[in-house]
Amino acid sequence: MSGNIAIELGPARFRNPVFLASGPAGYGTEYEELIDLERIGGVVTKTITLEPRAGNPGRRLWETQGGLLNSVGLENVGAERFFKDKLPALEDKGIGVIVSLAAEGWDDYEGLLGAADDSSAAAVEINLSCPNVERGGMAVGTDPELVARYVELARKRLPDRAIIAKLTPNVTDIVSLARSAEKAGADAVTAINTVLGMDLEGEDSRPVFRRVSAGLSGPAILPVALDAVWRITRSVDLPVFGVGGISSVDDAIKFFAAGAFAIQIGTAVFYDHTLPERIVEAFEQRGLPARN
Amino acid sequence: MIDPGKGHFQAVVSRRESLSPSCVLLSIERPRDFPEARPGHFVSIRVAHSIEPLLRRPYSIMDLTGSELVLLVKVIGKGSALLAGREPGDELDIIGPLGGTVFPEPEGGEAVMVAGGTGLAPVLFAARAWRNANLHLVYGASCAEEILESIVREGFASTHFATLDGSLGYHGDAVSLCAELVNGGKVGGSYLYSCGPKGMVSALEAGLGKRFTEHYTSLETIMACGVGACRGCTVPTRGEKSPAYRSICADGTVFRAREIAWEDWNDR
Ligand SMILES: Cc1cc2nc3c(=O)[nH]c(=O)nc-3n(C[C@H](O)[C@H](O)[C@H](O)COP(=O)(O)OP(=O)(O)OC[C@H]3O[C@@H](n4cnc5c(N)ncnc54)[C@H](O)[C@@H]3O)c2cc1C
Ligand SMILES: Cc1cc2nc3c(=O)[nH]c(=O)nc-3n(C[C@H](O)[C@H](O)[C@H](O)COP(=O)(O)O)c2cc1C
Ligand code: FES
Fold first, then answer.
1. Whose CA is nearest to atom 4 of ligand 1?
2. Are A62 and A214 within 8 A, CB to CB?
């Protein structure tokens, strides 16, 4: 044992810096029988919106070389059910939680922050980066000024919670988004959400998804995520949650070397759900990897 | 919801039998502690310890005895080809049993079961589990070679085959054959069960659903997590709120066919 690898972010304290990413991990409990959620830093829960969302029609998943395209479209149970049923189910068991929120417009956002304020959530990740919806999500998250406005309001409404802004890589300069988040008072940023991508199928080469573009995740995007973490941590003085393509202990080490404060694992959990615990074990033995 | 409790297992292939040009029967030593499973449950297998293919592949449990877990594998792409190529002694990385619903036993003991292609797997599991039931199997495939006759001999009161090219049994699809048999009074029962391509099951429901007290179907689609977390494997269902998506991996695999909004279930 190389001792304590706990981390703190504002008022939130986590056992270690290894999290399940928002989306793939659902509301956490789905994986309970397969992953010891009390061993890892915690779960970033599936992004919720104020009202429940049915999600996108048609196909939602498509595998590519070393990657996965998804067009789930933020299907979720809505804030009321989430805060009443899903969050307590995790907190009662002592599982670390970061609650992911997405606005579907400004009024909506006020309501959502109100619901978060009434809850026990210690840390909130604002998803400013979902590519699979029309309103909110990436539509907001590609504009540094809007990122600042959304983070500012979260800061104001949730003064004593940790505020994390989740950024999209689908911009020319992700560093400017991180700068906006920092100026607006975020405690941390998460980089990255999925990368826009598409595929074609059949003899007539039709797009596989109804919305054509979808979000690419998995090993294929690791270099994009690593680059984002490296550049952000060299320009902005905020802790960064690194996420994108992590599928081995060595990948995890790279993210810390690039400057990450913590990591999140998404797609790899689908095919190797033991990975998060293996990373924790490695870090407990050797200590957290050093920053380059 | 019937959740047997799921686990993660390294299991050894004990037997591999080629059944047709495209299908292989894989018998796997049942890992100690592998929970009981019922017809409609499935397992999800990591077919390669690399990132190609990336995701696990889902397979219906075709049989589960005290010593064996049996799967029916049709080669349709890279993942299934890797799995079908596994030899006795090879290890498989499996999670399961997965699925929240299963085929309920037929009321009155008599029922019709319609299988298309590898949709045969959960149907055979049911036939083996309900030994006292009177089950009529209607089974369709592309051609005689793809009718896996050697594995459907036991457990049915009657068996009826359909091939699209007419090379064995009825010339046409399983749904048309089933309609003929039901209308001619040759097969019947309280429940209808099905598993097969989406088009087969929706045509079956449209044509014959009302002739049975219940039509239960085990559905398939592309999956990622297999445990209800990612919301990637959803099917639109009829309900107060429309669309209401349910996950095939955790809310299924078995649904009442009339609950599915077939007209809205499209790839695009
Ligand atoms: C619950 C469940 C039970 C299943 N049981 C069986 C079984 O008992 N025996 C069996 O042989 N197969 C079964 N399948 C299907 C099997 O999982 C797929 O054939 C396999 O994953 C294909 O992998 P691949 O890498 O060979 O094909 P890929 O190379 O990934 O795909 C080839 C083509 O098939 C399409 N495809 C892949 N998976 C599916 C799917 N599930 N539904 C529709 N289209 C698909 C792809 O989009 C692509 O166009 C089941 C699927 C599910 C969800
Ligand atoms: C099926 C799926 C659903 C996702 N849903 C969300 C979501 O609801 N909110 C969010 O912030 N990110 C979501 N993501 C993005 C992941 O959190 C993560 O940023 C991305 O997948 C890259 O990490 P990975 O390569 O480890 O998966 C989703 C990803 C996948 C594959
Ligand atoms: S495959 Fe993830 S919800 Fe079904």
1. B59
2. yes
